[in-house]
Structures are given as structure tokens and as C-alpha cells.
Automatic annotation (TrEMBL):
Annotated source species: Elstera litoralis
One Pfam family cited in the UniProt record for this chain: DUF6691
Source organism superkingdom: Bacteria
Keyword Transmembrane appears in the UniProt entry: yes
TM spans (from-to): 41-61, 88-111, 117-137
Swiss-Prot/TrEMBL keywords: Membrane, Transmembrane, Transmembrane helix
Keyword Membrane listed: yes
Name of the protein in its database record: Uncharacterized protein
Length: 139
């Protein structure tokens, strides 16, 4: 049952990424290109996608905080780190640089991979290589 629920959630998430255009690197790069703002070439449509994701996340977190336990687990898994360190700063920075250069982040890249996109395949390969390399770096 848990597998089917997770599969359904993943399919809905992937469909949302496709419909919103998040799996199209050209659309993402047009959104990230703020230099095109004065010329009218900036694509603001993904701002609505991001704003709605934040709103849904906020409502979800507010709702779940009132629960005693999660629906499909024995207890909530909360992060133990309470302060910013180098890894917490560098990780998102590398993520953002990669997103800005390639127009992909992991979720949309996997969705685009399902469409047979060569650029998504290259990105996914580089992403997996980066994940493997990160495991070699000592904590």
C-alpha cells in the first residue's frame, strides 16, 4: 500500500513538473535570466509555480505540525542540526549554480529523462557522478 501511495504521489508531482514547464530547461533559464527583464524577455510564469509550491508547503507543514505522528511512519524524522555550517551553505550554492547553468534540477531532470531528452540524460549522468563523488568527501 505504501509503495502505491508513493508511486501515485510521485506521478502527480512529475505531472505537475511537466505541466508547469519545470522540466523544460529553456523555460527555467528564461525565468532565471533577470538580465532579460528590461527587454521583456524574462519569463515570469515560473514565479507562480514557485509561489504556489511555497503556499502548498506552508499549509502542509502547518497542518502536519498538529499531528502526533505521521500517517505512514512511527515517528517524525526531524533534522538534528540546528546551526549553519559549510556543508549547509555550499550544498544549496552548488545546487543553484547547477540549476542556473543547466536549467535542470534533479526532479525535473528525471521527468525530462522520461521523455527521452538527451540533455536530461547528460544532466542525470553528471548528477549521479556528483553524488558518488560527494560520498568520497570526508565529513
Amino acid at each position: 500500500m505504501r509503495f502505491l501511495l508513493n508511486l501515485g504521489i510521485g506521478l502527480i508531482f512529475g505531472l505537475g513538473l511537466m505541466i508547469s514547464g519545470m522540466s523544460n530547461p529553456a523555460k527555467v533559464l528564461n525565468f532565471l535570466d533577470l538580465a532579460a527583464l528590461p527587454t521583456g524577455g524574462w519569463d515570469a510564469s515560473l514565479a507562480l509555480v514557485l509561489a504556489s509550491a511555497v503556499a502548498v508547503g506552508l499549509i502542509g507543514f502547518q497542518t502536519v505540525q498538529r499531528w502526533r505522528k505521521p500517517l505512514l511512519a512511527e515517528a517524525f524524522s526531524r533534522p538534528s542540526a540546528t546551526r549553519l555550517d559549510r556543508r549547509i551553505i555550499l550544498g544549496p550554492a552548488i545546487f543553484g549554480i547547477g540549476w542556473g547553468l543547466a536549467g535542470f534540477c534533479p526532479g525535473p531532470a528525471l521527468v525530462a529523462l522520461g521523455t527521452g531528452s538527451l540533455s536530461a540524460a547528460i544532466f542525470a549522468t553528471a548528477m549521479l557522478a556528483g553524488m558518488a563523488a560527494a560520498r568520497l568527501i570526508p565529513r
